[in-house]
Amino acid sequence: MRVRFAVLLATVPALILPAATAATAATGPGTVANAGTTTTCPTTCLQGIRAATHTGYDRLVFDLTAETQYTTWTNTTGEYYPMSGQTQHLDVVGDSYLFVRMQPANLGQDFQNPDLRDMGLPTLKGVQLASYHAGTSEFGISLGPSTRYNVFTLTQPDRLVVDVYR
């Protein structure tokens, strides 16, 4: 008896920022189970951030445990104003910048993404936690030469998606 195995090789470069282990599962609104530990958020937990490049666009995904409301705005300087009220600049240099504020979006104890991530993708240069306070998370996204983007939500599981087009 002969058995054949096939290996699928991905040709699309991808960057996955681990939120926790692969065993992480959403067990209900605001609860995250992770290898024997449980994080409970008052409403929505941000589990992690991941990004990949696709034909014609780059995609950034915020993995959530429940729905969230969001607002976006752009600028060409990378300036933002955290709770301190003092002007700050995003660390990853881009041609333009997209900011996303999610509310509610708590950073649970198991959220292990760094505050800053250099993506190095064609149109998605980096993402940075700009501000977090009282269940509101604000991220700055450094963009390449493209300024066309689409932000939307998906469910089952809940995600906030940012597509940046070339």
What does this structure look like?
This protein has a single domain (26-165), classed as Immunoglobulin-like (Sandwich). It has strands at 14-16, 25-28, 31-34, 37-40, 45-54, 57-64, 69-75, 79-80, 88-89, 96-103, 106-107, 116-118, 124-133, 136-143, 149-154, 159-165. The protein is built from no helices and 16 strands. It has 166 residues and is mostly beta strands. The chain is 0% helix and 53% strand. It starts with 13 loop residues before the first strand and ends with a strand. Strand 13 (124-133) and strand 14 (136-143) form a beta hairpin.
Indicate the topology.
Layout (H helix, E strand, L loop, with lengths): L13 E3 L8 E4 L2 E4 L2 E4 L4 E10 L2 E8 L4 E7 L3 E2 L7 E2 L6 E8 L2 E2 L8 E3 L5 E10 L2 E8 L5 E6 L4 E7 L1
Parallel strand pairs: 5-11
Antiparallel strand pairs: 1-5, 2-3, 3-4, 5-6, 6-16, 7-10, 8-9, 10-14, 12-13, 13-14, 15-16
